[in-house]
Amino acid sequence: MARVVVDVMLKPEILDSQGQAVANALLRLGVNDVSSVRVGRRVEIEFVGDSPDPQEQLDRAREIAEKLLANPVIEDFTIRLAEAGSDRTDVSA
Amino acid sequence: MTARVGVVTFPGTSDDTDVARAVHLAGGAAIRLWHDDPALYGVNAVVLPGGSSYGDYLRSGAIARLAPVMQTIIDAAQRGLPVLGICNGFQTLCEAHLLPGALTRNEHLRFRSRDQWLRIEATATAWTNAFLPGQEVLLPIKHAAGRYVADQHTLDELEATGRVVARYIGGNPNGSQHDIAGISNAAGNVVGLMPHPEHAVEALIGPSLDGLGVFTSILKNLAGAPA
Question: What is the pLDDT of residue B226?
């Protein structure tokens, strides 16, 4: 069973206030050599069926990401296939 | 005939009762609309109240815009039905592409709850025609994601065409670009406002009665005043 992983990140030009807060917290942790932290969202999608065509899965995930998972005004996304139960990336999109 | 103003309730909406009361105080009839029911029951205008629809999951308003009632509202708004989105309703209108841009996490990351001065910059919309141009009003704000952002082209167009409806004065509470507190679509029937006019309609609980102007505006508009 394959799944599609969609990573949604704020566009570089949009201030990432969450990332800044994490960076500030790192200073309190004693970590002072971090130049940037950005926080995004990871969405994992599994389609029904035994062995759906990988390209079709990626295409459908892209459509889902464009319509709902990401807001194109403020966010970019990347999609890739991964084996279920694994973080290993098999196919990049 | 009394104007019928629809007030939508999504799961997680919290200001629907206050909006319905504000409509009533202004002299209109509030018709409660339910997220799962696409029917609009002959309303002459619609308000999307504030709250945290669908728990603000994914992005504020991102799930609400797919609710059955929103499909009908989006179609009707594109044909001219006056629609006002307040706070979470504003976020939902942006997610539904009825208004440009987006509302993102407050710059300082804190939930901001306070009374806020604004300047009404556009009085030609269906929802602000009862105000004087440049009128300064005091309304409550209460939000975590009220920072309006849009690309430069959109901001320039909003400014050039007088579609910035309200601007924060006396301090920007969330880092909003151009101090934007509210905008309208090109036709002026769709307006999004981050502050809460429905919480400023009675002396007992509001900081002013300034919010009433929003609700008298829509009644004026429906009675035939130019939008």
Answer: 53
